[in-house]
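Table S5 (text form). Sequence records supplied for joint modeling of the two-component complex.
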Amino acid sequence: MGYLLGIMTLICCNIIVVIGLSLLTGFTGIFSFGHAAYMAIGAYSAAILTTKLGVPFVLALIVAVMIAALAGRLIGIPTLKLVGDYFAIAMLGLGETVRLLLDNGGKLTGGARGFGNIPGKTAFPIAFVIMVFSVIVMRNIIGSRYGRCFLAIREDELAAECCGIDTYGLKKTSLTISAAFGGLGGALFAHYITYIQPIMFDMAKSTEIAAAVVFGGLGSLSGSIIASIILIGIPEVLRPLYQWRLVFYGLLLVGTIVLRPQGLMGGREFTIQGLKNAAQWVQEKIPGRGKGEKR
Amino acid sequence: MIKFIQQLINGTSIGFVYALIAIGYSLIYSILSFSNFAHSTFIIAGAYTGFFLLTAVSLPLPFSLLGAIVGGILIAVFAEKVAYRPIRERGNPTLYFIIASMGMSIFGENIVIATIGPKFRSYPPILSVTAYQIGGISISVLDIMAAVVGSIFLLMLMYVVNKTRQGMAIRAAAFDLETVGLMGVNTNQLISLVFLVAGALAGLAGFFLGMKYTVFPQLGNLTMKAYVAAVFGGLGSLPGAVIGSVFLGIIETIIAGYFSSTLRDIFVFALLILVLLVRPSGLMGAKREDKV
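The corresponding structure-token record, covering 587 residues in total, follows.
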């Protein structure tokens, strides 16, 4: 039971990070392959605050989120001026640079050996409540005027700009919010696992986060959540095949993009009404062959 | 002074290997306007094919080298056919190409770990031990071979691109792929050709990297540096890729020689970000404007 709760806690931490990237990639159309960096920033700042400075857990969480958001903002100012895949590349470089800096951080970060003795404050109920809260906040952001502006930028940046949307400013906002969620997930993760190492936030982690967003469907919040449950849950069950995990993620990324680029949810959200419609659709289609996806 | 010249030579030699990789990045970028991160997979394919031909089959060196090139080509053309062509035919945004190429690079690295194993394997010592001494400076036979073979391939490529019909098609496609298709060039075939060339150079580079260091699944990560070199020289520009690679090779070796090797890796990424901020088109890249 403890083991199961552990996995569920881990899933909650990851959902927070994944919906953060979902806002950036799925809703604003900016791809990042270094999102584990923000998770690392959140994890390390929270860990240093609680372990070395004795700050209470909740306060440390808030400060860690603010630090991660600030980092996202500062990184966004120069990099978001880059067009197209240059931004993805800059993020890739950033992810590696943050990891290398943590590796060489001396006493403060513990270097490559890692940072231990973090108080295990993230119990499942806490993680779950924070996760649900984050999802609600994210849903409201996406439903707000900001969210519609993000979508406009994703669909056509030039047209969005012509409509009077401050695309550069809003892209920065999107990255800041996204980094804040990453930092929150990281901080919770650090206080669950109680021992962090720079290698935990490497390319593989960034890949895992990005794979969840792409697999769940770009532009679908519930898709991201379902995908993170599947992607974190399945490898835990299949521990003996652990080294095949990344093979699977790689294949999943390529396969999703090539065969079903709209992902699991295809830009739609999971609703009860949608479930009913799907059931009805399946019933109608049972005698004949389905036409494939409707979009 | 002697130390400095030694570093210069070491840097140039690694720069040549980077150039072989960077050219592949640039070539694909110039046609399809995306950064093909799956290039690392082509490198690994070349390095491991060469390794197994040398050890398990014990073929002589030239044939193993050829085998490595074929290995790189096969993977490159396969990747293009299976992953990039469907995306291209659907007309999806470049974002999808990047995601697919990233996925492939991760798949490639980890399928090697899962099947062949994560161990470091060293090439049989055919060449690398011997070194010429000239006035206190030592040059290994491997460095000379890498420079000579690398140059031959680069010159051949320059000839093909600048003098032949296919080369003209490639240059035209770099200008506007769609129009080239309208002018009666078979674009699918042309793109396969580009991937073939990129794969061949990557296979060759993988072989040299394997001889210089060892073969291991993360060998492909070295392509990150070649990628930085390609960006630095200007993505899409072939001479730029070569100049950027040699420059990066030299700077990197000097930093590692006089300061530390951790600083070297941070420097490479810092350079990448700096170039992207100050001059995203690189040294010789064409200024790219977003089309509507």
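Note: Residues 2-285 of chain A form a domain with the ABC transporter involved in vitamin B12 uptake, BtuC fold (CATH 1.10.3470).
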